[in-house]
């Protein structure tokens, strides 16, 4: 199975109040836990990164400019849980100035695939670069697709070792809380359907190339 799901996330851009979204604030407001229920907190030793708060294989990071929720298991049911945690963050701090919300689905392909190389490689362009003694370190294409009142940004990158990264970013830009809540309320099955539609119908990957990420 060539594709490997990795690094899925929900990201809400805005001016988040880290004085409120401390690890205990995240546990109470986003995970909605009682005070006696512990969470794991990971703090960077050699960097100024905000702490990561972990509970039941979900990680929440509150930076000053974004709230990030990472499901440790890259499946669509777990992505739906991350979207729900994002909605809780919005509801907990509705006065937060907002800018955009994104739902990220990413895959890695560690072997060369003809259908992917056909997309990333332009022989005329590559030949002109080679004729000028320029060495290509990596290749990539990107498209922004209008979708459901927002955009789906699709990026395909080919690395020097012929591996590939495929990234989907389902994004809605808005300053309105209601728009963010609506975006995070999209049924995860609709997101999965759109991902598979692009992977199978547009990129022309075989269903067997795509991991079964529907399981919880």
Task: Walk me through what this model shows.
The chain has about 220 residues and is α+β, with helices and mostly antiparallel strands. It has one domain. The chain has 6 helices and 10 strands. Strands 1, 2, 3, 4, 5, 6, 7, 8, 9 and 10 form a 10-stranded antiparallel beta sheet that branches. Strand 4 and strand 5 form a beta hairpin. Helix 2 packs antiparallel against helix 5 and helix 2 crosses helix 6. It is elongated.
Subunit arrangement of the protein: single chain
Structural class: alpha+beta
Number of domains: 1
Percent helix, as a range, is: 25-40%
**Which segments are poorly predicted (pLDDT under 50) over 5 or more consecutive residues?**
none
Q: Total number of β-strand segments? A: 10
Q: Sum up the overall morphology in one term.
A: elongated
Q: Please, how many helices?
A: 6
Determine the N-to-C terminus distance.
Answer: 19 Å
CA-based gyration radius: 19 Å
The run of helices and strands is EEHEEEEHEHHEEEHH
- Indicate the proportion of strand residues: 25-35%
Task: Give a quick account of the main beta sheet: strands, pairing sense, barrel closure.
Answer: 10 strands, antiparallel
Mean pLDDT: 93
Distinctive features:
216 residues, 6 helices, 10 strands, alpha+beta
């Amino acid at each position: 199975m060539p594709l490997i799901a990795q690094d899925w996330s929900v990201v809400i851009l805005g001016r988040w109040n880290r004085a409120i979204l401390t690890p205990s604030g995240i546990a109470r407001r986003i995970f909605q836990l009682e005070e006696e229920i512990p969470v794991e907190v990971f703090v960077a030793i050699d960097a100024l990164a905000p702490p990561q708060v972990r509970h039941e294989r979900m990680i929440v990071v509150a930076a000053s400019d974004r709230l990030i929720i990472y499901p440790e298991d890259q499946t669509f049911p777990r992505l739906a849980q991350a979207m729900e945690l994002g909605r809780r963050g919005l509801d907990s701090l509705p006065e937060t100035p907002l800018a955009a919300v994104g739902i990220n689905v990413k895959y890695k392909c560690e072997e060369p695939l003809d259908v992917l190389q056909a997309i990333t490689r332009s022989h005329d362009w590559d030949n002109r670069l080679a004729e000028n003694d320029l060495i290509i370190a990596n290749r990539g294409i990107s498209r922004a697709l209008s979708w459901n009142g927002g955009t789906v940004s699709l990026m395909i990158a080919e690395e020097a070792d012929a591996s590939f990264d495929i990234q989907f970013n389902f994004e809605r830009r808005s300053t309105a809380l209601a728009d963010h809540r609506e975006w995070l309320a999209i049924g995860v099955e609709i997101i999965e359907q759109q991902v598979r539609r692009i992977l199978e119908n547009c990129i022309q990957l075989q269903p067997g190339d795509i991991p079964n990420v529907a399981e919880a």
